[in-house]
Amino acid sequence: MKEGGVGKKSKGERIELIDLAMIDRPVKIARDTIDPERVRELAESIRESGLQQPIVLRPSNGRYEIVFGDRRYLAHKLLELKTIKAIVRDLDDKETVVIRGIENLQRENLTASEEARTYLALKEEGGRGVMAIAKKTGKTYTTVKRYLDFALCSEEVRRAVDQKKISLSTLETLQEIDDPDIFKYHFEMAAQNGITVQVARLWVDDYLKSKAGKFYSDGGSLPRGGVESAPKPVYMTCEACLGAVEMKDVRSVVVCIPCLKKVRHA
Fold this sequence. Notes:
Elements: E1 13-19, E2 23-24, H1 36-49, E3 55-60, E4 63-68, H2 70-78, E5 83-89, H3 93-105, H4 112-124, H5 130-137, H6 141-151, H7 155-162, H8 168-174, H9 180-193, H10 197-217, E6 235-237, E7 244-246, H11 257-264
Parallel strand pairs: 2-4, 3-5
Antiparallel strand pairs: 1-5, 3-4, 6-7
Helix pairs in contact: 1-2, 3-4, 4-6, 5-6, 8-10
């Protein structure tokens, strides 16, 4: 059953009421999780006001695959509706990846991993270079590049960033540590203590100085009298001012969350 008069249609595009039983969800879901409560809220909105924006489908093996609009589809199933209004487009795989990627980047509260996977799909499946992705999505070259690099990190590292145990900027600073074991040690310390970029910078600078000292001691031109050995300061983040502070000056304090917030915003 076709419906006309909804916006300007592109070539190979039509608006139809499609039987939900004929629709398949995307093979790769953009979000790590879909909040059931958000789906329920959307279902209630559709029950009261109807579907405000059709989902987008493409024909696939005699059925239809969702290009975007997965939550709207799930809301219709929750309401036990039989059909859904859809824009049906004749799209190949690369076109689908590009359209789906641009739509995904417009979603709220994407995790860093979800955003990174979107750029990676545009690159690997959509056949786009970094500059082409930046132009297509309206992002800067630097933004696309940093998320593509992040997509190559281990699951443990990505999960820590997604859970906001460590910021992406802090991670990028720590990645200047080129020794895998030393990086792992500092990364785990950072994730456990929630350090700032400034503290990470101190850690990295200390590592680079130690690395330079080792280079000279292993055969470089060592200054007369050798390299002066001194205790290395270990820095953490002050919970009150968020500044760097040496571990020896840190004192543990038991404080409830409301009081901690007051201190942070004082």
